[in-house]
Design a protein that fits this description.
By secondary structure, the protein is an all-alpha fold. Helices cover 64% and strands 3% of the residues.
């Protein structure tokens, strides 16, 4: 007599097709025991801290987690479990599309770590960026289902009821994972565009100066308030770029436009003295 898993009407929604559902309901552990056992075995390879949490810091711990994440996706696929919609990946930037080239589960280690650590702030080149509240909420949901899944695997006994419960947790984790992945990667994309905006701002300001110089001439333009203001803004932009681009922490952002003006005056004096054939006192001593 076949001891088949007990299903509710809503259980069928966890599978891709009715055929996948029927196969699991009919054969239960007889067909899928090896699939679940391999997942449980990979879980046993994870390195745990004293508090029972999974080690994601050490090199060995990271390697074990990455193998386990692959096993999670393979188990869900082997069972024919329905996966969350990941069509949003098509809107990622080219760098992230390279990491997520299709709509497969593709559980990334860094995404898991971000969901477990749940940092609300990210620092980029000395600037602080806040993650969206929805991202943090999604991270908590992933962490909750991750813990539930780990608890089930830590006490795995291959019973039919555990198989049904584990299948449900795999689907729930996948749904939560996709929601967090979308929100988290979207936040990262937004954050990464902001430093590039600093460069674009400096380029636009430099172009504006060039246009004003063409319009008024190099001598007269220096008296135009708009030109003076744009010069000041450009120097501030370059100074800020200098500070954030220097990863050694020595970039200065306190250089003012007055330094530029003094340098320009010095060059004007030098050029004038050169034209008259008079020593300017600026070059090296004879």
């Amino acid at each position: 007599m076949c001891m088949c898993p007990s299903f509710s009407a809503s259980s069928a929604m966890m599978w891709k097709t009715s055929a996948d559902y029927d196969a699991f309901a009919k054969f239960g552990s007889a067909r899928y025991l090896s699939t679940f056992s391999l997942l449980a075995s990979n879980y046993q390879q994870l390195h745990l801290h004293e508090d029972g949490s999974v080690d994601t810091e050490s090199e060995l711990g990271q390697s074990a987690v990455k193998v386990f994440l692959v096993s999670l996706a393979e188990t869900a696929e082997a069972l024919g479990l329905r996966s969350a919609n990941r069509a949003y990946r098509a809107n990622f930037t080219i760098n992230y599309r390279a990491l997520f080239p299709d709509e497969s589960r593709n559980y990334k280690f860094d995404v898991l770590v971000a969901s477990l650590e749940q940092h609300s702030e990210i620092w980029v080149n000395g600037d602080k960026f806040e993650l969206d509240a929805e991202t943090l909420t999604s991270a908590q949901t992933v962490a909750w289902w991750w813990t539930e899944l780990c608890m089930s695997l830590s006490s795995w006994n291959s019973s039919d009821s555990q198989q049904v419960a584990l299948a449900m947790k795999l689907v729930s984790l996948d749904t939560a994972w996709a929601a967090f992945e979308y929100s988290y990667i979207s936040d990262l994309i937004n954050i990464e565009t902001r430093p590039r905006q600093l460069v674009l701002t400096a380029i636009n300001e430099e172009q504006k100066l060039t246009n004003l110089e063409t319009m008024y001439g190099h001598q007269a333009v220096s008296l135009i308030p708009e030109y003076i203001g744009t010069q000041r803004s450009l120097v501030q932009s370059i100074s800020h770029l200098n500070s954030v681009a220097n990863n050694l922490g020595k970039g200065r952002d306190d250089l003012s436009v007055e330094i530029l003006w003094d340098a320009m005056k010095t060059m004007q004096i030098y050029d004038a003295s050169e034209k008259k054939g008079c020593p300017s006192g600026l070059g090296p001593a004879a």
